[in-house]
Amino acid sequence: MSGPNLNDTDLWTLGVIVGMALVTLVTRCFFLMSNQAWHLPHWVQRGLQYAPIAALAAVVVPEVLMTQGQLISHWQDARIYAVLAGCAYFFWKKGQGQAVLGTIVSGMLVYLPLHLGWGW
How many CB atoms lie within 10 A of CB 111? Predict the structure, then answer.
């Protein structure tokens, strides 16, 4: 018994795929289609400065504070101590060139022994 092949695909599925491809193409090329220079308003440029940290927080914070959709309910979780170690290192070395790399390394130096060694 074999799985479905291209001949089994209905027209609606193909239409959706082509439609999504067109929408993606148009939205990504939208700014390149204009003949005139296009400038973002100052408030948008200022807001975009915060986009990377906001995206990082949106990904990292739930991963650190939750397990399977529930808040962490016990203190024996290696992620808590890794975040505390990383934050401590970052604020200790703030303004120096290797602060971000050191934050990651210090957090992992705490996380790995607790998680792999003690099973937290």
Answer: 20
pLDDT digits (tens, 9 = 90+) for 12-64: 999 999 999 999 998 888 777 777 777 888 998 888 888 888 888 898 888 88
| CA–CA dist 94, 59 (Å, integer) | 23
Residues in contact with 85: Cβ distance below 8 Å, sequence separation at least 6, in sequence order: 106, 107, 109, 110
Q: Are 120 and 114 in contact (CB under 8 A)?
A: yes
Instruction: Say how far apart CA 90 and CA 99 lie, in whole Å.
Output: 6
Between CA 101 and CA 82 the distance in angstroms is 14
The answer for residues whose C-beta is within 8 angstroms of residue 77's C-beta and 6 or more apart is 67, 120
pTM attached to this predicted model: 0.56
Which one-letter amino acid corresponds to residue 116? L
